[in-house]
Design goal:
Helices cover about 20% and strands about 30% of the residues. The protein is an alpha+beta fold and about 160 residues long. The structure holds coenzyme A.
């Protein structure tokens, strides 16, 4: 039995520890983290999943970013504890987060990740959307929450300033 709830400030360091466990060392040196520096995640979209004894099983966070002059959600990090991987929890967190983003009025979502995994949710490579270097352009993926929201959108991804 897994319970999914919005992340609270008390969850912060436990989620960080899960990300440290699930990602390669030095994850915060990735260029995507420069878009998160000094910017809080989007309130209400970040989720934690706990099993019946309260142990953290998975987490997802979303940040706001600019792409050119437009706004977008940056999905991630998302991680599932190794003891719960392959049970559908990652997919559930992603779907729930995307739905919350849609309800929150966001038009488009992007991420840096593995296309073979994220394509199942409808993510596809974003041509002309430039993450801070060094980022492999093949890993820059997008999903429309409003039809057409990525059409004709290009430019640099920059840190949220609104
Ligand atoms: C990626 C991750 C969040 C997926 O969560 P999960 O709960 O294990 O995934 P689900 O149960 O929803 O889906 C499992 C499916 O995804 C596939 N999958 C998982 N990671 C994948 C990847 N990097 N590339 C391709 N497929 C992947 C599995 O093979 C499985 O495929 P199947 O449905 O055909 O059997 C989790 O494995 C994880 O935390 N990994 C380490 C951190 C990480 O890499 N996160 C971001 C990925 S860019």
């Amino acid at each position: 039995m897994i319970e999914v709830k919005p992340e609270t400030p008390d969850d912060w360091w436990e989620v960080e520890a899960l990300y440290d466990l699930c990602f390669a060392p030095g994850r915060t040196a990735l260029s995507s983290y420069r878009l998160r520096d000094d910017v809080p995640p989007v309130a209400g979209l970040s989720l934690v999943a706990r099993d019946s004894d309260g142990t953290l099983a998975g987490a997802i966070r979303f940040w706001p970013v600019h792409v050119g002059d437009l706004d977008a959600l940056l999905l991630g990090p998302v991680a599932v504890h190794p003891t719960h991987q392959g049970e559908g929890l990652g997919g559930f967190l992603i779907q729930e987060g995307l739905e919350a983003g849609r309800e929150g009025g966001w038009a488009r979502v992007m991420l840096v990740g593995d296309a073979p995994y994220y394509s199942r949710f409808g993510f596809a490579r974003l041509e002309g959307v430039e993450m801070p270097p060094p980022t492999n352009p093949d890993r820059v993926l997008g999903l429309e929450l409003i039809p057409g929201a990525w059409t004709g959108v290009s430019g640099r991804v920059t840190r949220w300033t609104r």
